[in-house]
């Protein structure tokens, strides 16, 4: 283990991504672990919402972290580590989706376990899903409908919706990740919303 | 607020619920360990030469469209045409070869072996009659047939 430099925070959670990358590149491969822990949830969500399949997401997440680790030396500091690893995740997922389509893969939406929490309860109440016994059923239906609608969007449109609406990534950052202009991101988002409004009309209040 | 604006808020709210669609904290607690195992397994994989992996990707890329139902008929038709083409080419090659062989024989002036045509249509079958049949009995010697009866014809008196 590399001795800690003077003034360096003891808790890995406090260390900046770029510093951890430097430590990995200097030979301390364990410094990559905090990066995995830091990004696993976010990248899982991005990949899952693009593929709608848990098994595929798990496999892709492994590949993404592995690829990033192997190519860490090619990471240029022109963008943040977050942008860089999100770009790897999205490219990897898009390649996977294309190959899945070519092979005539039938999408199977998996019944992922919902981790219900008070925040979700509040959000569900706002969209008219009541608490009580029928909640699980209604939630399952909603999840299925949302996944189906997302899968009907083109990969380009789905990507911006996942990053912007689900993950809450700012449009400037999305433009950096996808290497697009902000105008293109806005236009894709606008078109995707139009499509989704048509598909999810029954769930939108009049 | 306009209807479009309300729809937008509702849509955003709906989509935000997907944030909670995660496999749970247990999965993420074990993910790092699983990732380490995955990396170790990857290290044990034999290293594929770059050219081979490139060829593999090319093969997959070329093979993949044929697997798509939309291209299945086109792929099948192309395969049939190719097979037919190969058969026709093989036949043409065979004819050309025999012509070339006979031409080479003539050029060399080899006349020792005459060409024998064994054509089934040129062979005239001989009439084989079993002895003692009614037909043979009737045609013993020359006879004319008048009406129902057979009349004996004396060859010496005829001409």
Describe it for me?
- By secondary structure, chain A is an all-alpha fold.
- Chain A has 9 helices and no strands.
- In chain A, α2 (32-51) runs parallel beside α4 and α7 (155-166) crosses α9.
- Chain A starts with 16 loop residues before the first helix and ends in a 7-residue tail after the last helix.
- The mean pLDDT of chain A is 84.
- Chain B has 6 helices and 2 strands.
- Chain B is flat and about 75 Å long.
- Chain A binds chain B through residues 33, 36-37, 40-41, 44-45, 48-49, 54, 61-62, 65-66, 69, 99, 102-104, 112-117, 119-120, 123-124, 126-127, 142-143, 146, 161, 165-167, 193, 196-197, 200, 203-205, and chain B through 6-8, 10-25, 28, 31-32, 34-35, 38-39, 42, 60, 64-65, 67-69.
Please render the helix and strand layout as text.
The complex is a heterodimer of chains A (206) and B (159).
Chain A: H1 17-25, H2 32-51, H3 54-70, H4 81-102, H5 118-126, H6 134-152, H7 155-166, H8 171-178, H9 182-199
Helix pairs in contact in A: 2-3, 2-4, 3-4, 4-8, 7-9, 8-9
Chain B: H1 3-16, H2 25-44, H3 50-67, H4 69-108, H5 134-138, E1 143-146, E2 149-152, H6 155-158
Antiparallel strand pairs in B: 1-2
List its salient traits:
heterodimer; A: 206 residues; mainly alpha; 9 helices; 65% helix; B: 159 residues; two-stranded antiparallel sheet; 2 strands; 64% helix; flat
